[in-house]
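Lab meeting prep.
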Amino acid sequence: MTTTYAGATAEPAPARRYLRQLGIDTQYVLLGFPLGLITLVLCMTGFFLGIGMVIIWVGLPVLVATLLMSRGFAVLERARIGPVLGRSMTHPVYRSAAGSGWMRRSIAPLADGQAWLDLVHGMFRFIPNTIGFVFVITWWAIALGGLTYPLWDWSLPHPEANYELPEILGFDDTAGTRILFYVVIGLIFTATLYPVVRAAALLEAAFGYSLLNGVDRLRQQVAEANAARDVAQEQRAAAVSAEAVALRKLERDIHDGPQQRLVRLAMDLGRAEQQFGTDPEAARATVAEALAQTRETLDELRALSRGIAPPILVDRGLRAALTALAGRCTIPVDLDAPPIERLDPAIESTAYFVVAEALTNVAKHSHASEVQVIVQRNATGLLVTVADDGVGGASLAKGHGLAGLDDRVRAAGGVLAVVSAAGEGTRLTAALPI
């Protein structure tokens, strides 16, 4: 049983696709020949007339008019090239002198490199146009003529003194031989019609694309490369900033927690050592207190280690780690995290820290009664949302608690957004690419 889905577009059959492309390529080449002849005459005439009269300044407006005319032909050619190459053709941005005087605006095309490339295309396109036209006309004529030869062989004179091609090649001079010979020739040219016409069309289209869109495409690639470089630099800077913030936080937590407890533990043990000789009961009490300090120190060190690299995240994945994180939060957490496949460790770690930092901020500052955590996996990335019903007022600005989290998300190539109107709670959303 076959199920048909509404809106689905069926892939055309190969034969139909080839015939359609053959028609597109044929009309492109055949129409390109007269267009090439027209642009050759107009562009050559306008260019050399303008160059010859530029000394008396009359040539400047002639050159400008010629460039504008070639731009019009270039726009038409880009529209024709698209179906041949199977891609949408972008129109380059031409230079203009906006805001200047009318004189500078009038002669602005003279300083535009793409305008001159359009003119060069108009002057020299006739060369590939002619080559393609000759091959396409020849192949179509011989293919159609050979296949239809049995229909009109009777109408041709065949005098005894006239040696036809089959007879020159050594075949018998009979109607059957001629018909079979020319039909075979027609079949050969029909079989090679598509690749020959396709090659002729691609020759013209490649020439036009290189001049009309090649430079603009190169500029776009350079701009995209520069943008990618800027993004990489921003991610690197964000990663350095996030690491520095994490290290400062870890140092502060160790200094305020385990380090102070270890100092007190050393003092208690020293006091107990002195008390053993004079007051054993007091010494035992001091040792018991030191043991309690040791347990608390171990608990704090475990908590800090979970903040650096939680083992449950490494062993069991993001969902299990978020479940454990929600269970430790002092505010009720509604966790919506369906099972997903294991992701890149950097992405999982970033998502975990987004939720951990957000829950910490909610517990400390929001005065919320409930918080909702949603994790969604789509085709391009991971979407992590933490929303509470607290007092709001959170911000990504430098100096606020979320600035370091924003650096961490940007270092992973993601985007962090915060909506936190006063009195309306806070909604934090992190989009992480996969």
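Slide two material, second protein:
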Amino acid sequence: MKILLSGGCGFIGSAVVRHLIHNTEHGVINVDCMTYAASPDSVAEVASSDRYLHSSASILDAAAMQHLFETHQPDAVMHLAAESHVDRSIDGPGVFMQTNVMGTYTLLEAAHRYWKGLDGSRRKAFRFHHISTDEVFGHLEPGEPPFTETTPYDPRSPYSASKAASDHIVRAWYHTYGLPTFVTNTTNNYGIWHFPEKLIPLVTINAIEGKELPVYGRGENIRDWLFVEDHAEALVKAIERGQPGETYAIGARQPRTNLQVVKTICAVLDELVPDPEGPRERLIRFVTDRPGHDFRYEIDPSHAEQALDWKARHDFETGIRRTIQWYLDNRAWWEGIRAQRYTGQRLGTKA
């Protein structure tokens, strides 16, 4: 199978690219215009493969998307390109509407035009896989059951609203035009090559450097954590098995409060590289919560596990240890980002 994959130099997208090249026979056309969070280093280990090609085109460029489909004749699309940081969406929502909504529309239109020209067997086998988030479902109160594929949408941030819109657009192209699309929604991912603005990489790097560890509110917000390589495996299973019109909610059943996550990172780093100044929990600082901060996300992945014959391989303790060790071993990568693109400053304080 030849897959046109958008956002393949991002955090989740690069994990999918690496999984495809290392563990399957599929080919990949990686469409990534290299925004601030993209990293060519994250796919460097597979870039020489004859099954891999990178295009720096933007999914907002309709002519470029049409050219890619005509030139490479893909069998499927995996659409991961997105602006994804909630805090950035609070400070500047416009780019989220452009990339996540109009970018999805532009890519869908190119795929639809291409799909209509395919012959019978290729047309029937074609898939458009849209990768989304559990944040479109809003938030959960204590004691409420986890999200499933049938949970009503209730987005609360500019980011989640833009992703909800894109989900609806993808489903509309299935129902209206027959384009064989399906959607996966997932929980918070963590792991290697994660741009250091999100909670786990930010706290890990700050703790390595002996800097303050900012925790929103009292750290009581709960997230359901999924190791990115497990998610990549699930997404590849989905493009191989996913059925048009379906939704698959992907998670690992690993809920933790933000404070539990931060304390775990501190404990692992204290074990691996003790700080002469003392345990790193001393660095935790509670800061003003961000506007509209959802309390809890959690997914029941039962349907996806059965339909895709998949289950997350890593528990949180194993995955976080692998992640922390990777950041210890790859200082040059994140130090370069700290020096040039993102110094660790707080975002998302506008209200």
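Talking points for slide two:
The mean pLDDT is 95.
The two ends are 46 Å apart (CA to CA).
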